[in-house]
Amino acid sequence: MKLLLPLLLFVSSSLAFAQKKEVILKVKFSPNTEYTTTMKTSSKSVVNFEGSKEQIAKIKANGVTLPLVVEGHSNMLSTTTTGALQADQSFPAIIQYQKVDAQQINNGKETVTESPITGLIAKGKYTAESKFQVDTLISGKINDAFKKAFKATLESAQQSPYPSKPLQIGEKFEHKVPMSIPVTGSQPVKLLITTIYTLKEMRAATAIFDIAQTVQLDMSIDQTNLKASGSGKGVSEFDTKNNFTTKYIVNLDMNLTMHANGLTITTQVNSISDQQVAIKSL
After folding, report:
1. pLDDT value at position 81?
2. Secondary structure of 146-210 in HEC code, one letter for each residue
3. What was the pLDDT predicted at 4?
4. Are 66 and 60 in contact (CB under 8 A)?
5. For residue 66, is pLDDT > 80?
6. Residues 157, 80: Cα–Cα separation, whole Å
7. How much is the average pLDDT of 221-245?
8. How far apart are CA 130 and CA 147, in angstroms?
9. What was the pLDDT predicted at 80?
10. Mean pLDDT of 54-76
């Protein structure tokens, strides 16, 4: 009996520990809460051209130094404030974009641009399913067409990457997202980014994931003049108490090759994305 009791206690504690290591992740906003989001993105692209001497000379005659090196940095600071829960389980929300800007350095020449979204206020509500419905967009910098497009973006940009089933430490799942890269004088490059999340550990109320990404061409459309590949690594953290992703950092490398008008254009891109969310109950 003396040996049995410690054994039972050990088994019970082990089962309790194992149960805590299984978690269901569902992103949702809560009433009477403030979410402050900081997003920073930096990138460096090295672009080179291969072709006849005449073609390369023509490119350089336009003032282009080869290889063309472009660095970019963007910043966004926004705050989402939610109100009291209503009878239909919805609650009002206000999104304020305090700062949205971008810096670009093109072969040493720097330009800084403030986005017209800076200062914009979006008023609406979150439904019981945590879908944002926009009632009003307030800004003196954007026209009605931009407002319509931005409203559609806000109402559709709430897709959760997490599976509906419980996850245990060591389990993986993948999430695929299309990406479009604009190309001057040509159709945009359509890519598919696959992100594999691995639940690394549970630390108090935080689920910590390792991230591995791969990049490939979107094969659903004809892009025979293009080649693309890439890979990246990062980390993500999910706050299980507040049901929200509070950290997402990824370092991604991509290689693109395009054949057009007798030229071969190669692009090497490194990008670092860093998103942090601070959550406060009101």
Report:
1. 98
2. HHHHHHHHHHHCCCCCCCCCCEECCCEEEEEEEEEECCCCCCCEEEEEEEEEEEEEEECCEEEEE
3. 39
4. yes
5. yes
6. 14
7. 91
8. 22
9. 97
10. 91
CA 267 to chain centre: 22
d(CA 220, CA 130): 31
Min mean pLDDT across 33-42, 68-77, 175-184 is at: 175-184
Q: What is the pLDDT of residues 167-201, one digit of tens each?
A: 999 999 999 988 887 776 677 888 999 999 999 99
Secondary structure string (H, E, C) spanning the chain? CCCHHHHHHHHHHHHHHHHHCEECCCCCCCCCEEEEEEEEEEEEEEEEEECCHHHHHHHHHCCCCCCEEEEEEEEEEEEEEECCCCCCCCEEEEEEEEEEEEEEEECCEEEEEECCCCCCEEEEEECCCCCEEEEEEECCCCCHHHHHHHHHHHHHCCCCCCCCCCEECCCEEEEEEEEEECCCCCCCEEEEEEEEEEEEEEECCEEEEEEEEEEEECCCCCCCCEEEEEEEEEEEEEECCCCEEEEEEEEEEEEEEEEECCEEEEEEEEEEEEEEEEEEEC
For residue 45, what pLDDT band results from cuts at 50, 70 and 90?
Answer: very high
**What tokens appear for 276 in the block?**
């942090």
Tokens of 179: 């990406």
User: What are 85's two structure tokens?
Assistant: 């829960």
pLDDT at 21: 64
